[in-house]
Amino acid sequence: MQALYGYFSKNLRGRKGQSGFTLIELLVVVTILGVLAAIVTLSLVGITTNAEKQACLQEYKTVQAGLDAYMAYHDLTTVPTASTNNMANPVLLYNAGGAPTFVRNSPTVYTYTWDANGRITDITASSGGPAKPAGCVPSGV
After folding, report:
1. Alpha carbons 57 and 112: distance in angstroms, whole number
2. Domain count of the chain?
3. How many CB atoms lie under 10 A from the CB of residue 67?
């Protein structure tokens, strides 16, 4: 048993008291880290595109809810049809001067088109704004 301990303790110290990692050990560690980095990168690829689509859909839902609230507040069954990114015209959804405010802020980054019944029928990119992501369409269209 003593001889076995002496053999391993001498070989663990390395030659002439040198210690450190061998080239093979370093290559194995770098390879494992590379594989892990590749797995993480592949899982993050579609996140940005999906986030842009979800932001567009959420803004659409906010504007649609604002139109619905505007119509209910004023007891309307129809509103002027519009294609606008101005939430103060032709229907006052955002009132910078005070209440009531039917959407949280203005301007929006997209242009919305709605019909006389207050249903959003189309979403397009505003001039100078970001492109509308694929999959961002009004529900019910």
Report:
1. 12
2. 1
3. 23
Q: If pLDDT is split at 50, 70 and 90, which confidence band does 114 have? A: very high
How are strands ordered across the β-sheet holding 110-114?
82-84, 110-114, 120-125
Query: Within its chain, how far is the Cα of 42 from the centroid?
Result: 17
Residue 36's alpha-carbon distances to 39, 56, 105, in angstroms, are: 5, 33, 42
Most confident option among 51-55, 88-92, 117-121, 137-141 = 117-121
Q: Is 103 within a domain?
A: yes
CA dist list (Å): 81 to 23, 71, 103, 118, 123 = 72, 13, 18, 8, 14
Task: Report the amino acid identity of residue 40.
Answer: V
pLDDT in tens, 25-73: 999 999 999 999 999 888 887 777 788 888 889 989 999 999 999 999 9
Residue 132 inside a domain? The answer is no
- Residue 138, in any domain of the structure: no
Domain that holds residue 108: 50-125
- pLDDT tens for 123-136 read 998 887 788 888 88
For residue 34, give both structure tokens.
């590379």
Classify residue 137: in a domain, yes or no.
Answer: no
